[in-house]
TrEMBL record, chain A:
The chain crosses the membrane at residues 21-42, 283-307, 327-349, 369-389. One of its GO terms (molecular function) is transmembrane transporter activity. Residues 21-245 form the MacB-like periplasmic core domain. The keyword Ribosomal protein does not apply. It is found in: Cell membrane. Keywords: Cell membrane, Membrane, Transmembrane, Transmembrane helix. Residues 287-399 form the ABC3 transporter permease C-terminal domain. This is ABC transporter permease. Pfam families: FtsX, MacB_PCD.
TrEMBL record, chain B:
Signal peptide: none annotated. This is ABC transporter ATP-binding protein. PANTHER family: ABC TRANSPORTER ABCH.1 (PTHR24220:SF86), IMPORT ATP-BINDING PROTEIN (PTHR24220). Keywords: ATP-binding, Nucleotide-binding, Transport. It comes from Pelagicoccus mobilis.
Length: 406, 246
């Protein structure tokens, strides 16, 4: 029996029962659409994370204070106060695999500007901080080397701070008070948006680290973080080792003693976030898989009904010379046609849903072609697997009983 | 030329609580060009014999040669191929595929042909429909045809593979007198063209249009005689119509 004929027979019998075919396909449609949408969400989220992490700065090394462990009780990340300005200077001088080293000092508190109050985070930084974080200025300038040395009272505002304190004017040249100390605004940063932790990265004010240490924090010695950039992605790991060696030497740590700091590279950060999204994607994939199996059971159910209903038809076909295998192939093709059509409609549906979510919800949705191919492949397999039993039943019917069937 | 049908010691026993002997020892020979009626009371084994002759079933015992080939020991697939190549069935209930055109129904046996005897199956099916007088009904579905027309489509389907034998189980059972005569007329015509036909019927009038009558009782052949004063269905139909139109 020619394949073309078989396909035609399948097409006709599915069209004869349009409503039932449509209802049967429903499970597959939803399952396939769900799989593709989940994957599109997962891939989109992954891409987002990669973009955000690279927006944190290229080849960034984040050096943080170690965590105090006293009697096994953690006192919070970075609770040690081991990093100093001298450490940053040593890295800058000795580590030839890193460039642009910027220590930071965080000072939170009330900020007043143009008669408005705003509670924000002020960070004392080296001017290289902008390079570390791949951050550009929206307007104005970053402070200079001489301003850094002079502990000048100058500030560069993040986009959110500028908008809230000076909604209708450029703040350049105006002044603000941070913890009651007046600062002159010399620049405004480009907007960066939310961080991976959901924090608004633009809700910040940058001032020279020297000013932060000596004018706002009463001459503190330790710094919060040290940002550095590896000179290339390939040498990022070597740079991490180099910095580790310098800091251990500066901190006079002997062999066997733990680091009193830790270093995060961008690759590690990426991996950290990727693994969470992957876990989520996997969970969603399982749900989608279950709905596909449910769809498959629907196909099987309908095919069994169809075999019973068409017992006489089977009898007639067998009486004119159809072999068991012809009958089996016919029903298998019908089952596959059913599930594959469902799969194709599911692909179209998922495409619509993904577009909708991207346009109206601002989610990044990426449908990869292999996912579509896999979903269609799964649809075909479901038709084959769940169509097998009904098809086998049809092929085993006794022609005499089948012809006599009412 | 071999006999179309030659059975020897055909038995069929159904193993129920106690065995049912549907056929007990049937020896019949039917030659090419015969037109045979099998008669008998209900339960006498007519359908069982038909099913075995039609290769839908296998005898429990005995031999059966169809067109010179021993077929009693063939497996399912081989029997399917024999049905496809050598046998045409006509059923009491027509057994046409619903919502399928007359042409596609007639073409059905050729869909399953493994020998490629008929290359252009649609053309062959159209020829057969023309032969039974339904040239202008090819695209009609069974529901759009009268009972007589449906049985004509079924006969065209039985003819389509140029079978050695046409088997008809109560072909007029669902038809009124006039249509029955019409169908018997068609069978007579086909037989005159050389087609071997075997019909099962419980109506003695129907057997008068055949050439030979085999009578069965309790799984045995009890009578086997040539029909004398064979009637002509076309003539009877003409008389019947003129009587009823008075
Ligand atoms: N599948 C079957 N299982 C058991 N007994 C059967 C079966 N088919 C037919 N019989 C029995 O065999 C006998 C002959 O039946 P059948 O050939 O159908 O007779 P007919 O067609 O002459 O009415 C009957 O007694 C019937 O009950
Ligand atoms: Mg019977």
């Amino acid at each position: 029996m020619k394949l073309l004929k078989l396909l035609d027979v399948a097409r006709q019998s599915l069209l004869k029962n349009k409503t039932r075919s449509a209802l049967t396909m429903f499970g597959i449609i939803i399952g396939v659409a769900a799989v593709i949408v989940m994957m599109a969400m997962g891939t989109g989220a992954q891409k987002n994370i990669e973009e955000r992490i690279s927006a944190m700065g290229t080849n960034l090394l984040m050096i943080r204070n170690g965590t105090n462990q006293r009697g096994g009780i953690s006192r919070g990340a970075g609770s040690m106060r081991s990093l100093t300005m001298e450490d940053a200077d040593a890295i800058r001088a000795e580590a030839d695999l890193v460039e642009a080293v910027s220590p930071t000092v965080s000072v939170s508190g009330q900020v007043i500007g143009a008669g408005q109050n705003w509670f924000t985070q002020t960070i004392g930084v080296h001017y290289d901080y902008l390079f570390n974080r791949s951050w550009d200025l929206f307007e104005g300038n970053m402070f200079s080397d001489s301003e850094l040395r002079a502990r000048s009272k100058v500030a560069v505002l993040g986009g959110t701070v500028a908008e809230n304190l000076f909604p209708d004017q450029s703040p350049i040249g105006l002044s603000i008070r941070i913890r009651n100390v007046p600062f002159k605004i010399i620049g405004v940063l480009d907007k960066k948006g939310q961080s991976n932790f959901g924090r608004d990265q633009d809700d910040v004010i940058l001032i020279p680290i020297t000013t932060a240490m000596f004018r706002l924090s009463g001459g503190r010695k330790w710094v919060n973080d040290i940002y550095a950039s590896a000179i290339s992605t390939d040498t990022a790991e070597a740079a991490e080792e180099q910095v580790t060696e310098i800091l251990r030497r500066k901190h006079k740590l002997v062999d066997g003693q733990d680091n009193d700091f830790n270093i995060r590279t961008q690759t590690e950060l990426t991996e950290m976030f990727t693994s969470t999204t992957q876990a989520l994607t996997q969970l969603l994939m399982w749900i989608a898989f279950v709905s596909l199996v449910v769809g498959g059971v629907g196909v099987m159910n309908i095919m069994l009904v169809s075999v019973t209903e068409r017992t006489r038809e089977i009898g007639v076909r067998v009486s004119v010379g159809a072999r068991g295998s012809d009958i089996m192939i016919q029903f298998l093709i019908e089952a596959v046609a059913l599930s594959l059509s469902g799969g194709m409609i599911g692909v179209l549906l998922s495409w619509g849903v993904a577009n909708f979510m991207q346009n109206s919800q601002g989610m990044t949705m990426i449908i990869e072609s292999w996912v579509v191919a896999a979903a269609l492949g799964v649809s075909v397999s479901i038709g084959l697997i769940f169509g097998l039993f009904p098809a086998y039943k049809a092929a085993q019917l006794d022609p005499i009983d089948a012809l006599r069937h009412e | 030329m071999p006999s179309v049908i030659q059975t020897a010691g055909l038995r069929k026993t159904y193993q129920l609580a106690e065995p049912v002997h549907a056929l007990r020892k049937v020896d019949i020979t039917i030659e090419q060009g015969e037109f045979v009626a099998i008669m008998g009371a209900s339960g006498s084994g007519k359908s069982t014999l038909m099913n075995i002759i039609g290769c839908l079933d296998r005898p429990t015992e005995g031999s059966y040669q169809l067109d010179g080939t021993e077929v009693s020991g063939l497996d399912r697939n081989q029997r399917a191929d024999i049905r496809n190549q050598k046998i045409g069935f006509v059923f009491q209930g027509f057994n046409l595929l619903a919502r399928t055109s007359a042409l596609a129904n007639v073409e059905l046996p050729l869909v399953y042909q493994r020998t490629r005897r008929f290359k252009n199956s649609a053309k062959r099916a159209a020829e057969c429909l023309e032969r039974v007088g339904l040239k202008d009904r090819m695209d009609h579905h069974p529901s759009q045809l009268s009972g007589g027309q449906q049985q004509r489509v079924a006969i065209a389907r039985a003819l389509v593979n140029q079978p050695a034998l046409i088997l008809a189980d109560e072909p007029t059972g669902n038809l009124d007198t006039k249509t029955s005569l019409d169908i018997m007329g068609l069978f007579q015509e086909l037989n005159a063209e050389g087609v071997t036909i075997l019909i099962v019927t419980h109506e003695p009038e129907i057997s008068h249009y055949t050439k030979r009558c085999i009578e069965m009782r309790d799984g045995l052949v009890v009578a086997d005689k040539q029909i004398e004063n064979r009637r002509d269905a076309r003539e009877d139909l003409a008389n019947f119509t003129s009587v009823t139109s008075l």
